[in-house]
Amino acid sequence: MKFDLNKNPIDLFASWLDEAKITEPNDPDAMSFATVSSDGYPSVRMVLLRKFDKKGFIFFTNYNSRKSNEINANSKGALCFHWKSLRRQVRAVGNVEKATDQESDDYYFSRPLGSRIGAWASKQSKLLDSRETLLKRVKEYENQFEDKPPRPEFWGGFRLIPKEIEFWSDGKFRLHDRFRFVQVKNEWKSNRLYP
Which CATH number applies to 9-101+155-193: 3.40.50.1820, 3.40.47.10, 3.30.450.20, 2.30.110.10? Predict the structure, then answer.
């Protein structure tokens, strides 16, 4: 398989994601997202990519969650997509910043009503005494907002602004095709890597 190392990596990512949307049975936009705690331990979890552009990759969460607290303490992060059906992987590292209020509003109001209510009801990453408590909170917010919940101030997006993006494609006898794009003075420079 041949890859154009002169291509913009975001454009290349878009074409790989489009292929994954056809071949992956579930959540082709699922990515592992890593942060680092204040005591230096890495923490990784799965999140869903909800938007990407030339500036970076956006996901949405509760701003009081563990991941948000770790981003606020250390604004660096890493993400990884793995598409098993295609035998491909994309990794990126970079700085993380809050998405704009408009981006957060646009996505929040595109979500199903239950998901919007859920954003209010969940105290993400906090201790929960029982599932019944969560369901009771859901019911309370359904009654409070009916079908028009506003976006909570504590909920919105983050954008990972990549400084490095690496593409990996499986090869026979573990002779994988692997190449990395690095930002140098606002331009992407690419190199092929040994597998």
Answer: 2.30.110.10
